[in-house]
Amino acid sequence: MLEALPSAMRMSYNSLVREGIELYLFRRQDLLRSMLSVADLYFPQMELLLDRAGLPLELKYLTIVESALNPRAVSPVGARGLWQFMLPTGKIYGLTINSLVDERMDLEKSTEAACRMLKDLHTMYDDWWLAIAAYNCGPGNVNRAIKRAGGGDQPKSFWEIYRFLPAQTRRYVPLFIGAYFSMYYHKQYGIEPRELGQALATDQYLIQEATTFDRLAELTGVDREVIAAFNPQFKRGIIPGNTRSYPIRLPIQGILNLEAKDKPIRSDQLSISLEAPNLAADKAGKGKKGKKGTKGTKGTTYRVRSGDTLSSIARNHHTTVKKIKQLNGLRSDRLKIGKTLRVD
Length: 344
Description:
With about 350 residues, this protein is mainly alpha-helical.
């Protein structure tokens, strides 16, 4: 069955490969079912990008070994995303990684970066198994293994240098073959995808203003957690579309709702705060702090001033934006100067 796999790589079969196959088919069946259930969310886009780069489509199965198809996966050493890029390597291959955005967790961007890296490694070794090994442990370790195996500057096969590679990499290639075999032949072994309910039809929407998941949830009617699940690259639920355009993935109905409302996407929570110390008041009060709000029979109230945002008001009164909006029946983040708000 192994030789019947549609692959541009010449497969090997030995006890190590058999162990990798049995791991997924028998000892990790629950994990295999889970990965089969989400494969259609990720593999079509991966195949498109691998094909565009002229790479073997079966390289998509590296993400099985790397992250078990979890875009939020984080390794003990800090590698992230489906393709498990370390931060420096991700930046080398063009991924944006900062306090708000981590494209290692973006399906399209991380796959494009993986394609560039795998193409570089194949150019270096002219052998896919050595390139895959180098993807796991780095070219330096592979080069040292080749030298220790007596290859000098001439590349040798993965199995010839196997015993000189790091322990993790010695398992990596057999696990890749095992993952490919198991995902391809799962039906022959009676393994079916886990039932996850009806999948949401989604599409991409281009964000060109600074906004938040909360604002998008308000405009689209899509639950914030759903938006976050489809867009894990935005680490804090903030999309800095004012710095560059960002495509996000949303349920199609949510996109239709967004376009029908024709309202600004920008979140007022991201406006630059004009808060500053009231030096004149401090001087008049001899350094004593004024009251944050007025306490009444219906709770504490606050009168909106120039530069206020819901976020700053919530922070100053030790509450949340959501609670303030609920108390005052607010449906948007916009504030009118002079308006009195209940804050508790």
